Structures
1.
Amino acid sequence: MASSGAYQSTARLLNEVWSTHKSLKTLVYDNDGQLTCSKATYALCTKVLQAQSALAQLLEHVPQLTSAVRNQGLLYAVVYELVAGQHQKIQGGGAVKRHVLRHEQALREAWKDLASSTADYDDDGADETTAPPDDFPRYIRVNTLRASTEEVMRYFEDVLKLDSVKKDTHIPDLLVVPSDATPAILSSSKERRFDWVLQDKSSCFSAYCLVHGFHDSPLDSYADSNQTRVYIDACAAPGNKTTHLAALAAAACNDPKTPKSNVKIHAFDRSRTRYESLQRRVINHMPDDGNDKNKKSRIQVHTVCGDFLETSSEDPTYANVTDILLDPSCSGSGIFSREGTVTTPKMKPDRLRALQQFQITALRHALTAFQHVTRVVYSTCSLHEQENEAVVAAILQQCGHSWRLVPPKCLATWKRRGQVVAGLTPEQAAMLIRVDRPDRTNGFFVACFERFSDVPCVPLEVEESTILSLGNDAVEDMTSEVAAEKNKSVSLSIKTSSQKTESFSNCKQRKKREDLVVTKRQPAWVKQSGKQKRRKR
């Protein structure tokens, strides 16, 4: 159990790591290989460093706390103990504890909503001797809506005195700096803090693929006459992907090779807390009033506190949506800082099954509920094939007569591709993008869907044999539920193109009944207890 004394020693060690740019092991082991600090101090320091990226994002939600506590190492250690420690409680007392506890509720709520939240965090399973590898860098995405890449690089080198600042080889406007440069970047002036985003490389893939991953779509005639592209970011909070999409789309507006007169982005999140975080980030990272007003008018971001699953093109606001970015709730098994190991964490079968059901439902909705959508990018920060290739295979079975996979042209040189599972051919698997820790970034998965036919996509029931073969042993207990659903499934007939399909209102009511477990579920971070029963028809 950590004590206030352990916090102080951990704080000194953390501050020394950040100020000297030395590794933790270099500081705590002597020439004979003996540990020079207590095991409790070393363990806590290791876990704080593993969660450093998530903690930095968390403290952005309570800037008044950062200004009140000047000892950064102590602040990080105490906040970690409160939100992610074994007992989720601050031991001892003192002024720092009182400052932190004043914001306890806000910290806990924000932690749950972060992409790298501590849901399913196995504190006892973390290896105390494991630390992020020395070659795992920090990635900084330049916010080109406010500053140029060259300008930010000069600031990092000349003002922050960072020794190594490089451009990433895959993602434009993404900078690579040493992992121990984080404190210096966080201490930069408030005037410059919105000129860049601390965003992992892999999480930049989805927006990049949506804007630059497709060749000219054969169904671009769906777009309105003035070539406006209307995007939806379906699960947008905290907003990193939304602002990245805005920056890429704004740059595309000014590209003479692919002119687009206007771009509009609808960014959704149904959680009020997450929505407020999304709204703040969008406001802060959009261009200043001093920027070119004509350039600003060509890119609009509309934040929505609402459920994407309740939205369709029948609403005039979203009638002309052309592109959808879907990065739904997932296990987060690819987030390095969360597990601190190089192995895929074990997930409870019921949680993994619930996530997969929601992901299939959300992706199916993106492909079927919007008349003019021609491009959809699906992504997760998971390493589990049940949330990745299995979801893609199930969707192709349901919507493969209207939608197809395409390899993202912007990542043509990326070597790590999807896995071959039942329902996917080797050619289809090669169109999928996978990212793993050997790529020096967090784990990630991307699938690009393109509409190739205007035949309405009518969702079909997923066959029991397909569901069982798509995953591994973790989803074998799906048999009984899927069989029951199959027996009581509603038979849908596909009408000819000259006839109208089932109305959206009826379809939505039917979908609510069929997917009650998903649409009425608690947030992904809540651990479910017991099985939820479906409502009888």
2.
Amino acid sequence: MRYAHTVTQVRAAEAPLLAGLPEGALMQRAVAGLAAHAAGRLGRVYGARVVVLAGGGDNGGDALWAGARLAARGARVDALAPGRTHPAGAAALRRAGGRLRTVGPVPAPGGAGREATDRDPTGLEGAATLLARADLVLDGLLGIGGRGALREPAAALAALADPAVTVAVDVPSGVDADTGAVAGAAVRASSTVTFGTYKRGLLLAPGAGHAGQVELVDIGLTLPGPDLTALDDADVAARYPRPVDDDSKYTRGVLGLAVGSDAYPGAAVLAVGGALRGGAGYLRVATPAGAAAAVRAAHPEAVVTAVEASGAEPGRPDDVLGVGRVQAWAVGSGLVPDAATAALVAAVLATETAVVLDAGALGALAAAGASGPAAALRARAGTTLLTPHDGEFARLVTAVLGWSDADVAAGLRADRLGLARAAATELGATVLLKGSRTIVAEPGGAARVNTTGVPALATAGTGDVLTGLAGSLLAAGLGALDAGSVAAHVHGLAARRAGAPLAAADLLTALPATVAGLLAIPLPPD
């Protein structure tokens, strides 16, 4: 599992080491890992062309010191500095034969603990030439304390650096280390070397898209519990339900699905298909006649009850709940967000059964406002997982919680994790906020981010598969945080296996091999 911490937590963990170690010792731990990564990227260091983008903080110092180590091994290293630089790092680079070049006005010598002597002034044209010829670029413009877009000339340097050869130091410059927000100009790297722990912004969108592959270097920090986590394959393998010798289809979990309609029968087919691969042993599907025929044809394993409906209505609540006892419900895929769906959602929420709500169920919650099913949601004792995309999330929290449209739009851009956490707390439900980096947040604040998603998943029907998969995991006994994050991880892996172009039904084909591959991972010893 990958653990991520806030900038405040990292600073607090660094403080005792900075106080107790010799000056510069902590930085050299980081530099050693960075230089090793850079050398590995280059393959052959001698004769390589390396450009360091050197800001004035400790990140710039890390990059300059790493550049000095590469220069000592025969690389040609040029440092481009848009302002002041870290004095010890700059001196080390010059001693090793590297060159320090100022892009823009040459700063006055001294001041603020930084030095600016022995520099060559270089315009953007000269910087562009160096960057175009570089075999490797080390981005040390800003560190984890940076906020907002890069200013000129740093912004111009970021734009000139080829992402394919750029390594970010700790976090790509211009990416908010806590939120992953990118407010404007920012470095885009193909790899990032981060120190001590993952920074949240390296795992969250859109920052993750700027970071590339992330390598963690241990520098000896003693950290508190993580603020955010991300599952790896082995974590999912350890959590995925596995049948045991004395299991029956009932003991493995029974999932009820209130999905599909005569208007949208395909959603029911996809949700049931996802549920069949999620670990539950028995599926009870309640859906109108047209969708029932489609589900029976596609998935004869499911027990399907055709409930009376008119047009796109999901059926009377008593008819749906009367299909039999279940350990969890998956409700919403293919339902129309009308009064009939709201009545069904309210009835399901009035039970203590675990439930995942998606699509039409979320729309019905929003349409009913703060009363009705929303009141039942906030009062219930059972496990609840909500799986909105951005539009569904915005409609839900503005209608039910009274949040402003402007605040929600701004929050989705600037701090998706914070927004998902706040919504989970106020709604009293676990929120799975879909996106390129899906976030799963519990009411108590625990949160995970999924790192397996791919752009091809942005197509109709893939969310229905996810709903069925998550519901099946709930029925098999996982809690909402595990069910949501495991489902999202497997969903993303299946999309990668299916490839592009991707239709939602391709996930159903890819899921068995995907799950089998995960279950083949050896479990850790007890």
3.
Amino acid sequence: MRPNPLRPPCSNPNDGIIFGFFPEYSLRSIFSPIARLVLCLLLASFTQSAWGRWQYTNGQEVRSGNFICLAIVTERGGNYSGSAVITSYSGSSAHESLPLRPVSIDITVNSGTPDEHPETVTCPVTGFSGFTLSFNADWTGDVSIVGDGLNLNGNNLSVSGNLIHQAGWLILNGGSHLNITGDYLQQCDENGDGAYESNCHGQLSMSDADDYMLVEGRVQFWSDVLYNTGIPSLRAGTLVIQGDFEQRTASDADPSYRYRSFRAAEIHVTKFSGSATQTVTFQNPGYSFFNILEVTNPHPLVFGSPVVAARVTGNATIAIESPGEGGISGTIESNVTFAGNAFTMISGTDLGGHSLTTNCPVKQVGDLNLSGGIITITGAGGWDQRSSLTIGTNGRLTVPGNYIHQAGWLILNGGHLYITGAYLQQSDENGDGIYESNCHGQLSMSDVDDYMLVGGRARFWSDTLYNTGIPSLRAGTLEIEGDFEQKTASDADPPYRYRSFRAAEIHVTKFSGSATQTVTFQNPGYSFFNILKVTNPHLAGTSTIPIADGGNMQLNYIGTDVIAALYINETPQANGLYDFTNANGLITGTGRIQVGPFASFSAWADANAPGQSMDQDHNHDGVPNGIEYFMGKTGSDFTANPGISPDGTVTWPKSPAFSGSYAVQTSADLVEWTDVTEDATQVTKNADSVVWTRPTGPDKCFVRLLVTPN
């Protein structure tokens, strides 16, 4: 006697079992009921093969009729208890029409005529395995996908409960619709204890434009086999989520693929349409991502991580919040507001003329193109650029803090960049939060409408700038209100390491601060300004100014400013006074520039107080010309006479270029004066100041400074 291969009627639902078997021969009725049951179970222990023709269920209603859960019992009226998994053979019988009828099964004993014992019983069905749907169906209660998965085959399935995807493909194709009132969870019950504690072995496939999957609860993607070929299986259709979304790392997948548990492409849409706040978290943003992300939820989305998409669309304004580091990347087709601790873009982003407003610092890891859009940071946050940024025509970026340019191009192509703090080209090479080395970034300005305002200091310290010898600062205006510093890049090839700032053609650099601005070039002649416009007559006396061949200086102030050195086309210029009358077109405007120290008081007076003596006051501020010369003051601005500090000291600024002598004198009655210049207990002589400290003793003490210039 040879039984057909069988699948066991009682087994772990994860094994993909079915109910029903079809022996070729009957068992004789001489066996006792118990013996027949034992033999039945033994026969049922074989593997199901081509006889898996029927589709089975737990007797729940479907739109086209009723499924019937079948089992073979030892006698009429017998009972069966256990659980089943819906399965189907992959052949044509998978499309069996409904309603299914009870099947007559021959139970054969050793001899005699067959005795038919068909029975229909009610048993709980726990999942799908290798099941191809051939009709529209409703499901009540939780259900799992195990074994060889579930193919909707162009049909619709409604699940009134949770759908646990443990293994196999869940295939939506041909316009299939899957509605889940509970959760869709990719996870496994590895040890059969009823707890789903690990990543799964299943994949979701959507390939038709009309495919549609609605999940009213939360969604979790945690598969260890998805995209191990690199080909996304979410290529079309729409996944609508009304609860939270979570992507997790699969622990036991190949390292190259374990981060890819959700990857959408082509025309696939993921839509968030909840009626309350929804949380979206990617454990591996950049490896896993949305394709088209559509947001129709009027409430904010809470991002537990940065989120990457090819396109972002939906509400006129999409509100995003984050308890920590979050962000959105992709082609942005809506305005976005973000509130959190840090906003991060980790992939190519195109603002497409829309606005992004955030109240926290921005870390830009992926490429960003404003395309005429506007980014505004409303808090005190800064900007950390680690990839390329393009601000096109009508585009505007406002940064209230510091702008750290670590890598990539910063391209102003008709756009505006406003930085309240500093602009610093520098790198944090080891990630310790300290910017200690030169960077790999470049600033490009090529349009006459380009504009960049730096409210703080500006540092240019790139190891890649101008390594082709072609300046990238060719037009537009760079306005600086703080100090300027050009530094040598340590690891670039010479002579390119010296070229961290080179301007040409019609590019303008403007110094417009309201306090002293120091301009430092570590490599004047290799790095230089093109057109230098100065409206602040307070460049520090230690400043070095290099001008490109064919460039010029526009001194738009009244008076004379002093700098340490001037270079024209790599050549240092002689010390002296320069203005529009003697610079061969190099200088325009009303201001004058003194290169190097004044040789004498008379030279200072020629520049600042023509025809006056040292005891006169050319600007009527109460400080004699000789004292202003001593202090290094130039121009007609008001000079404050120093007062007594709370610590009992008086400090007079002193120009390092002062030529002459001076004396500090004290008096108790303003009649008799004593010279204390060489009394070290009272007078401290510094390179740039003279400090008098009041001695202990008399209640009244007056002090004065006498200056005798050369």
4.
Amino acid sequence: MPSRRLLCVATAVFSFACLGQTPPPVKQTARAESKQQAKLTPEQERGLRLLKAAESGAAGLEPDMRAFVLWRVGHAYTKVDAKKAFSVAKDSFIASEAIDDPTDTNQCGPTGSAGDIKSWVQERVLAEMVRTERISEAEELLPSATTHVQTQIITQLVQYYIGKKDFNHALTFLSQLADASEYPFGAAADLLSNLGPERSGDRMTIFNQALNNFEQHGASEGFTTDDIGTFIEKTWTHVPPELALEGIDKVLEKTKSEESHSHYSMSSEKGSIALKSPYELRLFQLLPVLQELDKDKADSLLRDDAEMQAQLKKYPSGMASLTSNGGLSSYGVSDDVTPSTVAASANQQIAQQVMHRTIEVIQEAGKDPAQALSDALGLPLQGQGPMHQSPRVNALMEIAKGEAKQKPAIAKSALDEIVKVGDQLTPQEIAGTSSMPKIYLDLGDEEAAKRAIKVLVKAAEKLYARDTDSDDPNKAFKGTWPSADLWTKCVQAAAKISPALAEEIIAEISDPDIAAAQRVAFATSLLGASGESMIVSDCRKNWAGFTMSTESP
């Protein structure tokens, strides 16, 4: 059986922000509520009717789709009725409890991953409660959440209390996760770093707790902002040198002793690097720290490793050299080196070179839009891999977005160039142009916007055929399918032109579950609710890919 590959296409690091930044509670009288309702526009009234119908219709859906639709309904209410939004969101959490727990590892990843819609809904409901300081309500529901969600929300509570400078409560919650298999190294690092010198004992307690958890459970073989290596990078100056050295020794010893066949490639605006094992990954990450603490030991580790010497000469701060100024732009993990993985690595290097050139063209647009447009046309039309987008189209889209106000003629030319090659693009590549209708509308060309929507609808239909392919179907929850996401973009774009056009698109969707979700998307657009980040999942026999998509208001 061919080795399974995990393709992660990330454009940003996502976190639950705004903890502790909560507006004061608003108490409305019946008269005030009536006044608020009277101010609703006809479009908003229509949106509310759609939401009420969707909420009622959710009862007839399967548990996963019921929880998903109710969660989206709750989000849509946030613009006009915060109390109702909270109530429906709570209903979506309760509905999620009826969803079967996923197996430890399935086709879309382990419990709590992007393929676990139960945890996805629960985490977002509880996270919003924490964000809006409904702490008691969150704690009431927390025991009913999956283990993964409990860990994530307790982590957010740690961060919440750090933001409040209530370090004692933060320590209490962190201690609850001392033995958790998903220890929050990132939150622990933040707490330790915020404690003053007078709390050196607590600093050492946290450092030892993190180190003990790593020894007990290990850590992800990959690089994240929430792992033991990053924890040490952030905290070593806040603890005694001998304790930091002990931590580095244990991490390097453990990763060196464990059998692993993982290889890593990563790149950013600063450059790219390939590492052949978890040990090499941690060595590259921690050697700059070790050089500060014990130069002789660092030199001895490097003495017989010419390749690592060269890497650190190029990137003297290790991982920090790559992740400064915005973090990694791409990151990949593969298994043992075989002819196929060598080819894949070579393809990835080519893709990274193209990506760097694409970024240069996009940045050039800020100085010389006309030249950037010309250079964009020289980029490759097709991207690499099943989840990648067209470099040329990506650059043209960014130029169109950036110049719509200042240089409308340039923006329109960029969009027109995309239209010219539309028949050469895959449905996935066309999906990357989902903001074309909005830009055309901003440029005052409604007819072009309608034509763009039609192209996108056809691409959504093709993606749906691929999602339901009997030979290799998409095993992810259908509410997160690429086809569902693109239909959402089409419906929301159409709603800005004509409600009738949006309804026509929904009526032609053959899948009743996806159609139900699109009615909520339509209502959200009518109500003007802010866009919501949504996972897009594509899980096949031998690979799985995930991206994040933000809906338009």
